[in-house]
Design goal:
The protein is mainly beta. It is built from 1 helix and 9 strands. The chain has one domain. Keywords: Signal.
Length: about 150
Amino acid sequence: MKLIRGAAMLMVATMIFSACDKDDAQPDTQFSFTFNGKEYVSHATTAFLTDTVVAGQRVLVVDGLTNNFQEHMQLMIISPDSTLTMGTYSGSTMSLMPVQDSLSAGYLGTNMTVEITSINSTRAEGTFSGTLTESGENEKPLTDGTFKVNIN
């Protein structure tokens, strides 16, 4: 009887400790925006921090591919100094390039406005908007941009 009771207590203790294990799964990522009447959503998103060629500047690069691998999307948030904190950053760049269509030049925005709402060494979140152009012409607004990314 003591053996059964001891085994039952061991099983309960094992279940309690295994239920309390920390979940090491990364939080979900999100990188999306609306452009030219179409919503673009990345299904393969990565992000990393790096230094620029100009000494003393930090850059957060958010990179992704749409689900059908038709477009490559990239947002570069450039800090004026060596820190990247919560706040508004103007002058960021955004590109939307075709992956399989070699005849299209894609779109580029060089004066995007980004609002970083949360950032630490492993995760960043924010919103962005601006204007993209095709071959320096045909300006079109980019709206409803959001990102929630794990920084690698």
